Amino acid sequence: MQLHAIIIDSDGGEHILTGRAGENIMQLARIAGLPIAGECNGSLACATCHMVVEPNWADLLPPVEDSEEAMLDTIFTLKPTSRLSCQIRLSAALDGIRLTLPA
Ligand code: FES
């Protein structure tokens, strides 16, 4: 089953990512050529996969765990719904989730 996430870039352009359940948003964004470094490949050792989740989707995500929160605390442009996109995995419940790339 193909699932989707929608990424809004800093110019307001929308990019539809397609993947399968369990794939993380950071990896899909990199494959799509979006400017997400994901330097640690999802091991919670950087914050270069930072994205801002649209508020109506944010409550559907699992809570932020301590290790993610420690990295989020290093982000200068942190927003209330900021998350590390490597920790967001596609699922049927999150099909169509919308996230914004930080400026
Ligand atoms: S890719 Fe490094 S924390 Fe997400």
Describe, in plain words, how this protein is organized in 3D.
- A hairpin with a 5-residue loop joins β1 (3-8) and β2 (14-19).
- The chain starts with a strand and ends with a strand.
- The model has no long low-confidence stretch (mean pLDDT 97).
- The chain has a five-stranded mixed beta sheet with strand order 2-1-5-3-4.
- It is built from three helices and five strands.
- It is 17% helix and 22% strand.
- It has helices spanning 25-31, 55-58, 66-72; strands at 3-8, 14-19, 50-53, 82-84, 97-100.
- The longest helix is centred in the N-terminal third of the chain and has 7 residues, at 25-31.
- With 103 residues, the protein is α+β, with helices and mostly antiparallel strands.
- The chain has a single domain, classed as Ubiquitin-like (UB roll) (Roll).
- FE2/S2 (inorganic) cluster is lined by residues 26, 38-40, 42, 44-49, 71, 84, 86.
SSE-based structural type: alpha+beta
Strand count, sense and barrel status of the largest sheet are:
5 strands, mixed
Bound molecules: FE2/S2 (inorganic) cluster
Radius of gyration: 12 Å
Q: Averaged pLDDT, please? A: 97
Q: Indicate the CATH architecture.
A: Roll
- Helix-strand string: EEHEHHEE
- Classify the oligomer: single chain
